[in-house]
Protein: Acetylornithine aminotransferase
Amino acid sequence: MATSSLLDYGGNVTKGLGRITEGIMTSGKGSYVEYDDGRKMLDFTCGIGVTNMGHCHPKISKAAADQCMNIVHAQCSIAFHEPYLRLVKKLLPLMPDPSLDSFFFWNSGSEAVEASLKMARTATGRQNIITMQGAYHGRTFGAMAVTRSKTVYSAGVAPLMPGVFTIPYPFWHQLGGKPDMTEDAQVAQCLYQLELLLAQQTAPADTAAIIIEPVLGEGGYVPAPAAFLQGLRAICDKHGILLIIDEVQSGFSRTGKFFAIEYSGVRPDILIMAKGLANGFPLSGVVSRKELTDKLATGSMGGTYAGNAVSCAAACAVVDAMQEENVLANVNARSEELFSVLKALKAAHPAHILDVRGQGLMVAVEFATPAGPGATLDAVAAPEGQGLGKTLASRVAKKCIEKGMIILTTSVYEVVRFIPPLNITAEDLAKGAQIFRDAVEEVVKEG
Ligand SMILES: Cc1ncc(COP(=O)(O)O)c(C=O)c1O
Structure:
């Protein structure tokens, strides 16, 4: 079917949505997507960390298709449905702490964030929420209020939900440091800022929760040091504050563990998941301990499509496929290969590449570019006239797209993020790494 004439209707789609590629995406299989003009592209975005098991994974798509012929909409306030309870059964043993035993499912990550905030306020009887500089939790009003990655998400739509306070994330940029700033120094500074915040701005008795991504996503792909997460846990325990761990992007094997929080051994009070949970079918989840969720009034949670049967059936198949295919082993092997290429590239271009970081297959390369935010204060911003071109990250990403690989930038800094499928082959990973290397070489030459 010729789809190109449909492009005319693109003008009838809101300008509020942005897009990084031209044309119409018509199909996807494994690590590749195809466009109606015949382009076949290697997908290093996974639709922003969603199709972790590759596009149209046969087992996952079949589970969804079978469920479509059984029941599609068994509304969660009308009855339980079988895939919902089967998913709970499959997820229980995978939780990063055995205390996490009470689930509810939604559609999007933002909705799950909203539900977690509502639950934290209900369970503690306190109002205030502490979030992280650089955090991204979504675009709905509560989620937007705890988002600190870019102003574009909330500019011009205030007032947002009140009662939100911010501390820096242990990310050298936010502390006026350089990429070699020690983890200990970053952790100490950030925990100190939290202590100050609790002494000067939001009394512990008014503070319901701290919400954090264990790997900062939209803020720049920065894994939080274990000591920071452990420090947050200790402060939460001391003051009866709930710790909300947002694993919407970092969860489901993305970082080389089933959940990224496992690297720290920290127990979340509330854990949020979405994206990779159902490999493209809209599904998110909130899990906490029964003692907390029992404080919710019956009927205070819910939604028309929440925990859809087709999405839950797909999610069950995701868990099975991840285990059967031993995906964690692949993530860790491919991660090592990717890091070795990127580190060599950094060594070859020390003036242009500031940092290579990440966990598992949630990996970033940060470029040096003049005139980033706070450039006059930023210890790593390169002064104009030193031969470094502007907007290196978006230029590299654009070149990758021209060369047949979709890849995203992230944050207000010059960061390209790698989110390849978790079951990608060594061959496709090497191909993507080569495309990136070529794109960097060309952009460096162009200046
Ligand atoms: C860490 C994190 N939390 C929440 C969200 C919001 O999820 P959604 O876009 O499904 O509403 C995202 C989306 O990118 C995310 O990365």
Q: What stands out?
A: The first strand starts at residue 25 and ends at 29. The CA atoms of residues 66 and 248 lie 26 Å apart. The longest helix spans residues 327-348.
